Amino acid sequence: MTRLLIIGGSDAGISAALRARELNLTVEPTIVMADHFPNFSICGLPFFISGEVQDWRNLAHRSAEEISQQGIQVWMNHWAEAIDPIQKTVTVKDPNGQQHILHYDKLILGTGGTSVLPPLPGLNLPGVYPLRWMTDSFAVQKHVTERSPQHALIIGAGYIGLEMADALSLRGLEVTLIQRSQSILKTVDASISQLVQDELQRRGVEVMTGVSVSQIELKGDRLLVSDAKGFQRVTDLVIVAVGVNPSTQLAQTAGVQTGVRGAIQVNRRMETNIPDIYAAGDCVETYHRILQHNTYLPLGTTAHKQGRIAGENAVGGDREFEGSLGTQVVKVFDVAAARTGLHDVDAMAAGFNPLTVETEAWDHKVYYPGAHKLRIRVTGDRTSGRLLGAQIAGHYHGEVAKRIDVFATALFHGMTVDAMSDLDLSYTPPLGSPWDAIQIAAQGWSRQFSEFSKVSHSIS
Amino acid sequence: MTRLLIIGGSDAGISAALRARELNLTVEPTIVMADHFPNFSICGLPFFISGEVQDWRNLAHRSAEEISQQGIQVWMNHWAEAIDPIQKTVTVKDPNGQQHILHYDKLILGTGGTSVLPPLPGLNLPGVYPLRWMTDSFAVQKHVTERSPQHALIIGAGYIGLEMADALSLRGLEVTLIQRSQSILKTVDASISQLVQDELQRRGVEVMTGVSVSQIELKGDRLLVSDAKGFQRVTDLVIVAVGVNPSTQLAQTAGVQTGVRGAIQVNRRMETNIPDIYAAGDCVETYHRILQHNTYLPLGTTAHKQGRIAGENAVGGDREFEGSLGTQVVKVFDVAAARTGLHDVDAMAAGFNPLTVETEAWDHKVYYPGAHKLRIRVTGDRTSGRLLGAQIAGHYHGEVAKRIDVFATALFHGMTVDAMSDLDLSYTPPLGSPWDAIQIAAQGWSRQFSEFSKVSHSIS
User: Fold this and answer.
1) Which of A22, A402, A460 shows the shortest C-beta gap to B399?
2) Residue-range domains of chain A with CATH
């Protein structure tokens, strides 16, 4: 019987264990995890703090009982200290500080990531929180509930920062959102993120871009946040959400190689350089389907996929990770912003000859009540006509999330932008158009492409 | 200069004209049409009758002015009587009854379809209406507005019948919906249509299946509808919506061949058997991408695509219709039901070895408020593992329409069901799951498929 040991009880680790069991019931995977929140949806933390999720237990994708009923043994509150790849053992410290040696035939590392903490005086002050783990969210929740803060300041306007601006506004706080660069939500172009920024401001959130916080200090029983150019805000609560770094300390004890952004190097079978050690999730490099090389793109969806593949291969399967497209969506108040594939800038850096065209189109026939205008950016390659990426923003009821998924599915197959008009998509006036909004956007791109390439002139 | 003549001013005809102009500004297409409602969305008629669309003029995809500004000449209220394919002329009767001879170099037929009228005594009685053209909807609207009917009976529970049940309920009528077969909405399987039927009944619509109406007769100032087995309802208004037949009378004057269901035979370039005569839309056969032969599948989306291709080829282009998957969606009150590809029964008839598996999955993480359960049926081929079709029903805010479009895009590319787990789809807890509902359904199919094929046993 294969001894399958998995380090980490979040998305990648649990997916690996479930897949291994699904394929081979003689395997009884053991998961070692540092806290006691197995399979928790860390993407859900902002909605717990907002009050939309009342009971934090509901954030679990599965309960500990359900996992154990699947034939998976979970050692909670156990810290994996070291791996010996020759003896094929992992040294684990239990909650009482006692060490145990676990033997494995196959080992999967799903050690995840940690919040990036900028080198900033004052990060350790009370009232300053990162937001990565359940315990972080409990601390923020306790602060908001017990100390009734009036104002919160969020450093970082990525997904978590935006969701926290929404969440803390819902809790009745005034919110200032700080972004170092000139636009928020850097994963999309500025004209897409502008719709999110408009929504934030409409809901009373103060959005400050181009501000690089240089220190946090106590001011009476409040906090003073400032930058070097004169920005200052007095606040009661600071959330630091500037990104994630891979957790690879344990991997390094085994001599596992790291690469992009310090993440664990893996091939598309999710194998590391050490035999019988796999890795998946936020701790690893991610193969990008369009770029055709590894990047660092930590996402819950990717962690699930990579974990599933690691689990399959660890029990004798042979499956490759088909690659990430960086597909993402975020909902901020009533606006959803989504993306997949490459931006113009990324595409150019990767050697493509990109053209990006922005189109506005209704989510459904405008004569039917409740139509929402979507802003859609399509990036394609001028040389090949190939679709390279897409971005959409608009009301979240405008099926923004699944429209980006149609683009993602087209990208997966390497379609040209022009061929998107051949897709047989659904239509009824309350939910679409005879040419769906994404096809209208694709046709908008093709028209500009024709002007450049003069292809139209070859048709007499 | 190519003289491009188009018969029909609905989806196919207008799309053809627009595409021809887009590609070649020296062409000035002329459209001859029988009524004065160019480019009207006939899919929108139920929403005009419901009152959701206040002004019928809004049902136009484009106004007559917009069409003419595109350089397209529209002859409204002109009836095309005959085509002479040798002289390359069309005889047209103007509103005064005078005949004109129009010369063409290229001719595109977009003559559409007509309502199927069952051989039923009483169809001509006042208060009995088909619903196909603008004038039909004006007649129903006038009836409802001026005569304040209390009860309506709808014969046929397809898309139009269902939408009319919704529409007339919104107008305050009691509604009885009659379907000859044992389940409504025959384009989906019974367990999918059941969710629609539940919603209709919850909203007070009386749904009668297995009823084959045999006559309609006057009863005082009301109508009595009955079948041969004892079914009887007294009503004030009858809508007949049992399907559509291709309009091919004009085509036949030119010797154009017809095929499936009497529709005009076309190749994938939308050419008929007569040189320089193209045809598109509800009057033609439609190439099915999975079946790889022609069927009759009249849909607005398809008419737009076929018209665009006919227009492109008529001005010297070379584009083939990539085929229909029969992708459709309907919204009935708060429930959307959608489908793409083949059902189990169709797939079997086409020589596949189909397996259909039904799964229930949430549209987004259930911990976030407002989650809707979706019922998803996946049909795949046991021999090849290939995806053959999918059906979804659930609350229309559950992004049912665009989820079926992800399946449609996967089908377009001939994906296996298993490979759907490789798609990089978007996720945020308010709008999805790390494995989207469609991937959960695909995995549900794969698990059953493994049990049959014992593929799992080959993995040690």
Assistant:
1) A402
2) 4-114+245-314 (3.50.50.60), 128-242 (3.50.50.60), 334-452 (3.50.50.60)
